[in-house]
Specification:
The chain is of the alpha/beta class. The chain has 19 helices and 22 strands. It folds into three domains: about 200 residues, 3-Layer(aba) Sandwich (Alpha-D-Glucose-1,6-Bisphosphate, Chain A, domain 3); about 230 residues, Alpha-D-Glucose-1,6-Bisphosphate, subunit A, domain 3 (Alpha-D-Glucose-1,6-Bisphosphate, Chain A, domain 3, 3-Layer(aba) Sandwich); about 140 residues, Alpha-D-Glucose-1,6-Bisphosphate, Chain A, domain 4, CATH 3.30.530. Helix 10 packs parallel to helix 15.
Length: about 600
């Protein structure tokens, strides 16, 4: 039986190999039907599905569910599991007896692919802890740590559209994998492409496939219970919260976790139960425009104070506040600052010295926590984007004697405590409710608390978005121009101004350049696998500053930008950010030249 053909193989060779290898009747028929049609459109579709092969990276796999070497399906799941299993057996001590933790969400194929993964590991002599039923993503890293497993796999596509699915991998330290494991696993997949097992019949009869689901849930909720602050008590007139789980798996987890807090939590019934079709939200991401409309509408009807939201696998969190003048939808950066301040105050009030406290955020997140750390005397640590870096950075500082109770990224991901070094939407819901109710007893709200933080640490405002770019060569051309912007013989030669502000520093994590670190000019952060440049600029007359990070997306054909302004006068910043965006698009990105799409 053939394995994966060479990358240079013709379309016919790729199709023939697929039809000979795939044993799933549905995906085989998809490819056969496209090949039989033979028209131009069908061949283009086959080209998209057949190459390049789906690539395993630090995010594992994520793609559309359909036949083809470039997609996620039974065959690529089996191949990935075979390679991952061999790599873990070679790299992790006592991997066979320590085993793997496997969970899945409610998406189409998720349960089957969790079982296929389990069958592959069992076939290679490894113990398997396979969660029964639907779980939220944080329960997998929790289980890896609690069971001292060799690795973990969660089958989920998080907040992607309904046709996508994914394969997220956790290492033995219960954090998402980083280099060099991603490359090592990818190489192992290539070395073990021939599928050896297609049946899942023996998964539930194997003595090596253990059901620890209820034990892990019990232990998880016990640890979540530790997040309840000693001084917490509900007010005489407790707040009302509306909660949406975005048609995902989070509802039973959030409901149980919030039960001890004495507040009213009303679910959005249309989005309460798992539904892989996501009928009310085509993009089930709380950050998307319109995603929270149903929840806000229900909150208005029942006079609720806040909306809580988790994405479908319940590892991300978002929130809104309803008040007399309307609705405040908090950004990920605003929630990050709110949670960080709350974590600092809790730590300080416990009597511990601030000098032992550290917090972590991704480099594209707000610099407000950095300003907070400078004023309050704790350590702020920056890392690359993604919780694989945030979690590993937290573990590293913890091993060096620091207390790291909080970390976040602007994409509504928040990490609390020490038991799960990953984002957790349930934990974030618990912390938000506690803070909101505590403030309510004082006659305040989350929004007024944020305004207090602005007065103490300065006003910060984010404006993040992206440009859609389908051609990788255009992306390379745009970034090459930014690195030789003024047509000078001096290298590097980045832009020196934007929107009238002088650029004060440049950190290029693609080429390895940091203007703030002479004489080596080497950045303190590791290099990025894609293009990534961060500019800081300042208006010297009034001290207004911006931070602008431009990076390629690891999963989508986009150039993303993360823009933040900070200073004393919010009106100045509010006027400045659109000017920066205009110059960024028209000049730096050359939108009209390359016909870039900007939402």
């Amino acid at each position: 039986m053939p394995s994966q053909p060479e990358p240079s193989a013709s379309l016919q060779e790729l199709v023939d190999a697929w039809l000979q290898t795939d044993q799933n009747e549905t995906t085989r028929s998809e490819i056969q039907a496209l090949w039989d049609l033979g028209d131009t459109a069908s061949k283009k579709e086959l080209e998209r599905r057949m190459k390049p092969r789906i690539e395993f990276g630090t995010a594992g796999l994520r793609s559309r569910m359909e036949g083809g070497w470039a997609r996620i399906n039974d065959l690529t799941i089996i191949q990935t599991s075979q390679g991952l299993c061999q790599y873990v057996l070679n790299q992790v001590k006592d991997a066979s007896s320590r085993g793997i933790v496997i969970g899945h969400d409610h998406r189409h194929n998720s349960e089957k692919w969790a079982q296929l993964t389990a069958a592959t590991f069992l076939d290679n002599g490894m113990k398997v802890y396979l969660y029964r039923g639907l779980v939220h993503t944080p329960l997998v890293p929790f289980g890896v740590k609690r069971l001292n497993a060799a690795c973990g796999v969660m089958i989920t596509a998080s907040h992607n559209p309904k046709n996508d699915n994914g394969y997220k991998v956790y290492w033995e330290n219960a954090v998402q994998i980083i280099a060099p494991h991603d490359e090592g696993i990818s190489d192992a997949i290539q070395a073990h492409l021939t599928p050896k097992i297609w049946s899942t019949n023996e998964v539930f009869t194997s003595s090596s496939c253990l059901d620890v689901t209820e034990d892990m849930k019990t232990a998880y909720f016990f640890e979540i219970g530790k997040l309840k602050l000693p001084q917490y008590k509900p007010s005489l007139n407790p707040l009302v919260f509306v909660n949406t789980s975005m048609h995902g798996v989070g509802y039973p987890f959030v409901t149980k976790a919030l039960a001890p807090y004495g507040v009213t939590v009303i679910p959005v019934k249309e989005q309460m139960l798992p539904d892989p079709e996501f009928p009310t939200v085509p993009f089930p991401n709380p950050e998307e425009n319109g995603a929270l409309d149903l929840a806000i509408e229900q909150a208005k009807k029942c006079n609720a104070n806040y909306v809580l939201a988790q994405d479908p696998d319940s590892d991300r969190f978002s929130a809104c506040e309803l008040h007399s003048s309307g609705v405040t939808a908090f950004t990920g950066d605003q929630l990050g600052a709110i949670f960080a301040a709350h974590a600092f105050e809790t730590y300080r009030d416990s009597g511990k010295p601030s000098a032992k406290l550290a917090m972590v955020a991704s480099t594209v997140s707000s610099k407000m926590v950095e300003a907070m750390a400078k004023k309050e005397g704790f350590k702020f640590v920056e890392c690359l984007t993604g919780f694989k870096y945030i979690g590993n950075t937290a573990l590293s500082y913890e091993a060096s004697g620091w207390d790291v109770p909080f970390g976040y990224e602007e994409a509504i991901g928040f990490m609390f405590g020490t038991e799960i070094r990953d984002k957790d939407g349930v934990a974030a819901s618990v912390m938000f409710v506690q803070l909101a109710e505590t403030l309510h007893r004082q006659g305040k709200s989350i929004n007024s608390y944020l305004e207090d933080l602005y007065r103490r640490y300065g006003y910060f405002k984010s404006a993040n978005s992206y440009y859609k770019v389908d051609d990788p060569q255009i992306i390379d051309t745009i970034f090459a121009r930014l690195r030789s912007y003024n047509n000078s013989s001096v290298s590097p030669n980045y832009p020196q101004q934007i929107a009238g502000l002088d650029i004060t520093s440049v950190v290029d994590l693609t080429t390895g350049y940091d203007s703030t670190n002479p004489p080596t000019y080497k950045p303190s952060l590791p290099l990025s696998s894609g293009h990534m440049i961060q500019f800081r600029a300042e208006q010297k007359s009034d001290g207004t500053k911006i931070t602008l990070t431009i990076r390629t997306s690891g999963t989508e054909p986009k150039i993303k930008y993360y823009l933040e302004g900070n200073g004393k006068d919010r009106s100045v910043i509010s006027k400045l950010l659109p000017q920066v965006i205009s110059e960024l698009g028209n000049d730096w990105m050359q939108m009209s030249v390359y016909h870039l799409e900007h939402p």
